[in-house]
Structure prediction request, 385 residues.
Amino acid sequence: MGRTAVVVGGGIGGLAAAIGLRRIGWEVTVVERAGVLDDAGAGISLAANGLRALDALGVGEAVREASRGQYTGGTRTPGGGWLARMDGAELERAVGTPIMGIPRATLHRLLHAALPAGTLLTGAEAGPVTQIGPGTVRVDRGGTPLAADLVVAADGIGSKIRGRLFPAHPGPLHSGSAVLRAVTAQPLALRTDFELTWGRGAEFGHIAFPDGRAEWHAVLALPAGTRFADPLAELHRRFHDWHDPVPALLDATRPEDVLHHDIGELRTPLPSYAVGRIALLGDAAHAMTPNLGQGACQALEDAVTLAAALTTEPTVEAALVRYDAERRPRSQAVAKAARQAGRMGHQLAHPLAVALRNTAMRLTPSRTAVRMILRHHAWEPPGLG
Prediction:
């Protein structure tokens, strides 16, 4: 089996894949076209499955030390009433860890630090990927060919590699929503670790960090390409009468820190995550809506599963067949569940539908809610040898 790989994309999934490959003895080069990642200013929640994947990669302890456990909080209405309270301690008893909140930039820094200097090539555009022999794949990088035994396409929802491998696939579609988000410029006295509030056609949530700052996000039903001249002012207008701490989170934010992205997804599942010696990973394989907080966790699962398959199968091609068989059913099921969760969350706008949803949530026992969460969080990583 070969021992050299090129990972296209230096986001969370790409760096995790590089770490996994190095842990099993491969030489890896990561090619990232951006100098600074788009989402460097946002935050992320890591569930038990993502944390277990990070443990398998050897960086779980460092990530936990930089994170804050989500023990308190839950889901609310704009007026402040509770639809469901989160019992992080109960979840920890069930799966061994609470959900952890961490700045995305911090997670990215920790993953980068786990790789040798020079592994990540930023500002480097990857061109076409071609098979140049029975056991070699070549990636064009700005006119310079990089030959490898394996190429990992972790180039995001707009993956050019995926488009070349599956030209008939419709590619990513707009979900009907956009997300605006930021990390506060200063700490706040928050009463909870995590909250999610559902209004009619809108959602607002926050994740508290260890230093007292918080990431917040606002999801709005908007046509693709909609942008505001002053995003923060627009959010103040829309959310000024929502419960505390929503206005306080916006007050603690600098206008220049607000990120605005359309939410896309691969609504049509891919027929395979592997072609020859090319593996698709993360959003390139299964971009999903953020309603379950599983996008990054699924990419981390991909990275560990790929490395494990390469340690047990006799050829790269056989390993990628196994990777596809293990990852595609699970990740596509999670993507479908995330889409369904969005339909029951911020996408509901009719007053009667909202009232029925709210009543059902209030009547759902906490243990039932934990069991529903466990469907996605209860994952054990394969060994890396």
User: Anything to note?
Assistant: Residues 4-70+97-172+265-343 form a domain with the FAD/NAD(P)-binding domain fold (CATH 3.50.50.60). The first helix runs from residue 12 to 23. The radius of gyration is 21 Å.
